[in-house]
Write a structure and sequence with these properties.
The complex is a heterodimer. By secondary structure, chain A is an all-alpha fold. The radius of gyration of chain A is 22 Å and the shape is globular. Chain A is built from twelve helices and no strands. Chain A has helices at residues 6-32, 35-43, 45-78, 84-96, 99-110, 115-122, 131-155, 159-167, 172-200, 204-209, 216-227, 229-258. Chain B is built from nine helices and ten strands. Helix content of chain B is 40%, strand content 22%. Chain B is globular, with a radius of gyration of 18 Å. In chain B, the strands form two sheets. Chain B has a six-stranded mixed β-sheet, sandwiched between helices. In chain B, strands 2-1-4-5 form a four-stranded antiparallel β-sheet, covered by helices on one side. Classes of the chains: A mainly alpha, B alpha/beta.
């Protein structure tokens, strides 16, 4: 039998405490709702619409994040330039600021009275109390997860791979799409899943910018405020289950690809 | 042939300066120098990976100084192979052909011909991660040679290979060079390798060319303090290199195809 050191045993004990701390509230909530209550809640169109909107808006935010964030991640991984540290810190700011504050900051730019808000209004896109507002709130708070993960992915790709590809006739675009991107895609996928999951669960920034149409996290809060714990719990359980199922499915797909 | 005139590359903390080279078509040219001399930077600059601060490069009479790497048709092999890990051996070798959108049958034919030349036909379906160092280097060579390069650049191609396979690979490189006659620049810091493979040798030190000549000129008649110190060896090693030189000279005298 393998003999474990005192240190390993202590660390296992300490690790178990924090794991229990994470799991206990989630498990308690999931198992304290009866399956009938969950089915009844799911049959409510208000709940279904809210969950769908959360999933959909987070997906749109992640797609925008992929399109705009992956090139930035590549540049940060490949180039050295003055002010690079500042840009890297800027990207991580949404992780550390309170999300309600982020929502107010976004309102100051995308609100109807402000310049970008006005510009988009002119082409028929409004952000306040509208789905695009939910998307940009999710994009703002969850983008760092994608950019940071993609940047690490690109850093792990030897730049000489691209150099060799160039000598073999690849243009810089072809070297990126045929070499760097496929080699970094697992990190990009992991970052996308994190960004999407973080987007689905976003509350603070969405609350400020677009209370309506209601996403699931806002619905949970509204039911809690209006009707109390009993009515908010099943919606919260469903939201957790949706996040869990999506998260585990994508992780599973990722690990199968690796195998 | 390749002609380089006053090549100047500035990478901020490192500079290559005043490099002049004239390499004949089909020549096997060695660039010898200590670590940090700028050997890899020189090769990468010739390949078009770094923009030149000054100077010009001609390849087969055509000036290619402003050509991007993908337009130069220069094969490049790195010391540690740099195979594409997400592609099979076959896909690595056919990478350039697929970029050029060559027809499927043509790709198959060229890959199988190149694999036969390098004796790696049995490896085509394998993943690069499962190959030995020597096998990886042969795949990297095949990948570089399949573009039918005007010039082949080898960046210390033998140094990551274990000593057992190094001799074999060295022989393979000689054989392939003899067969294809591709003008080759081979970077190394290994004297034996330089003598055994090179038609001529250039010594590079601290970003500058210190001497260009035959192995005999470099090792027996150094023109500068730098080259004299760099090629300084203990008596036993010196004797061995001189005997290598004698063997090479006599075999060249008898037959110019000594390389095989």
């Amino acid at each position: 039998m393998k003999v474990r050191s005192g240190m390993t045993i202590t660390f296992i004990a300490l690790g178990s405490i924090i794991l229990l701390f994470l799991l206990l509230p989630l498990l308690k909530m999931i198992f304290s709702s009866s399956s009938q209550t969950l089915i009844d809640t799911l049959l409510s169109s208000e709940v279904r619409d809210a969950i769908w909107l959360s999933v959909y808006a987070a997906l749109v935010a992640t797609t925008i994040g992929l399109f705009l964030g992956v090139p930035l991640a590549y540049l940060l991984a490949r180039l050295d330039f003055g002010g690079k540290r500042i840009i890297e810190s800027l990207i991580d700011i949404p992780i550390v600021v309170p999300h309600s504050a982020a929502g107010i900051a976004l309102l100051f730019v995308f609100g109807e009275k402000f310049f970008l808000g006005k510009a988009f209004h002119a082409i028929g896109i409004d952000f306040v109390d509208a789905t695009p507002g939910i998307v940009i709130a999710m994009l703002f708070v969850s983008l760092p997860f994608l950019v940071d993960s993609a940047k690490e992915g690109f850093r792990k790709v030897d730049p000489r791979m691209e150099k060799v590809a160039r000598t073999l006739g690849a243009s810089p675009w072809q070297a990126f799409f045929k070499i760097s991107l496929p080699l970094a895609w697992r990190s990009i996928l992991a970052g996308s899943i994190m960004m999407w999951a973080r987007g689905i669960s976003e509350f603070g920034a969405v609350l400020i910018l677009a209370y309506h149409p209601m996403v699931a996290s806002i619905l949970v809060w509204e039911r809690f405020e209006t009707y109390g714990l009993y009515w908010s719990r099943p919606v919260a359980v469903l939201l957790i289950l949706v996040c869990l199922i999506l998260f585990l499915s994508f992780r599973f797909i990722g690990s199968r690809e690796k195998a | 042939m390749i002609k380089i005139k006053e090549l100047w590359v500035n990478l901020g903390d490192f500079e290559l300066e005043g490099i002049d080279l004239d390499i004949q078509k089909g020549e096997y040219f060695i660039i010898l120098g200590p670590t940090g001399a700028g050997k890899t930077v020189l090769l990468e600059s010739i390949a078009g990976i770094y923009p030149l601060k000054g100077g010009k490069i001609w390849l087969d009479g055509r000036e290619v100084t402003r050509f991007p790497a993908e337009k130069r048709r220069i094969g490049f092999v790195y010391q540690d192979y740099v195979l594409f890990p997400h592609l099979s051996v076959k896909e690595n070798i056919s990478f350039s052909l697929k970029l050029r959108k060559e027809r499927g049958e043509e790709v198959e034919e060229k890959v199988s011909r190149m694999a036969e030349l390098l004796r790696i036909s049995h490896l085509l379906g394998r993943n690069p991660a499962t190959l030995s160092g020597g096998e990886k280097q042969k795949v990297a060579l095949a990948r570089a040679l399949i573009i039918e390069p005007n010039l082949l650049l080898l960046d210390e191609p033998l140094s990551a290979v274990d000593p057992q396979n190094r001799q074999d690979l060295q022989r393979e490189i000689k054989r392939i060079h003899h067969k294809l006659g591709v003008t080759t620049i081979h970077v190394t810091h290994d004297f034996e390798e330089a003598i055994s493979l090179g038609d001529r040798i250039a010594v590079l030190g601290e970003g500058k060319l210190r001497q260009v000549g035959t192995a005999e000129q470099i090792f027996c008649y150094p023109e500068s303090e730098f080259v004299a110190q760099f090629t300084q060896l203990n008596q036993a090693k010196r004797e061995m290199l001189l005997s290598m030189l004698r063997v090479k000279k006599s075999s060249q005298g008898e037959d110019s195809s000594w390389a095989i």
